Amino acid sequence: MYIMKTRMLRNIEVSAVGMGCMAFSHGYGKIPAEEYSIEAIRNAYTHGCTFFDTAEVYSPNLSGIGHNEKIVGKALKDVRKDVVIATKLFLRITPFEDVYKAMRSHLEASCERLQTDYVDLYYLHRMGSIPVEKIAEAMGRLIDEGMIRGWGLSQVDVPIIERAQKVRPLSAVQNIYSMVERDSEESIIPFCMENNIGFVPFSPIASGLLSGKITAETKFEKNDDVRNRVPQLSKANIAGNQPIVDLLRNFAEKKNATPAQISLAWMLHKYPNVVPIPGSKNKERIIENLNAADIILSEEEFTSLETELNRHPVYGHRGLGGFWRS
Ligand SMILES: NC(=O)c1ccc[n+]([C@@H]2O[C@H](COP(=O)([O-])OP(=O)(O)OC[C@H]3O[C@@H](n4cnc5c(N)ncnc54)[C@H](OP(=O)(O)O)[C@@H]3O)[C@@H](O)[C@H]2O)c1
Question: How many angstroms does the Cα of residue 229 sit away from the middle of ligand 1?
């Protein structure tokens, strides 16, 4: 069993690179057979990964609930106490409903699918019309009751984080973040650092762009494949973003690594509170991504990578208001 470096999401210790499990159920075309997905998750654990990300809405075509949580639950049930499971609830209620009761019933259903009696990190997947203070208060009750160890928000900006933090400190914020989606650098990541909040980048490999494996000729799948809508992955923008991919490729050659690994090592070097959750439905690539935790960039290497990166415009932008629910 391999031991990976760890980081803290406030009170929760996790491997420095986590694993996004979404694609076993949704978002990147055809899903693998369940046995394959379970084995891929178990392999990641054996390889030192202790941080697994799912959500109640991750199901084929986002229709139905809990497909992904069930897979994660089956894969990790024997090692439950040794791993951190993060899941997300999607709350749509009327102003007359009791926020805590609604959230508790979502959480109980997630726990059942995950074959556990607690969730380590419970995120609100998207802000809806419920004031964040009410969400924070309900999350606080769930923490006090021992049903969750910490809570988080996803795709949020500083004013919302600040309001939530005043009611019940957050363990983590999960936003889109990669070398080509850097909105969170301006104030969100610094705010999280100052307030001891972990920052968990989703789509850290820009949905595959930063692996260097996608070209303008790559055909995405027709069904349930978000890459058809990722702006950096339009034919024209893949070509426009090529200098960034080339930069990564050159760097990777020198470091005996892969472009995807360098893009992850870059963010790990840049911020001590960042824990990326790359997603893949391929066993080998999952391990490749986890191994990024072992790639050390010197200060000089980081500065040269960052300086070069800053020189290239990014074509296509999803931003915090991004297009997807997942
Ligand atoms: N909070 C939110 O709203 C939200 C939104 C989206 C995602 N998420 C979470 O974040 C996780 C990661 O995000 P993501 O999956 O959208 O984006 P990602 O990790 O940036 O990219 C996933 C894509 O990149 C490819 N890829 C990954 N590693 C690779 C490598 N080393 N070499 C070549 N290709 C590679 C994958 O293909 P293969 O499968 O073929 O390897 C897949 O097509 C998800 O699993 C989910 O848990 C959260």
Answer: 14
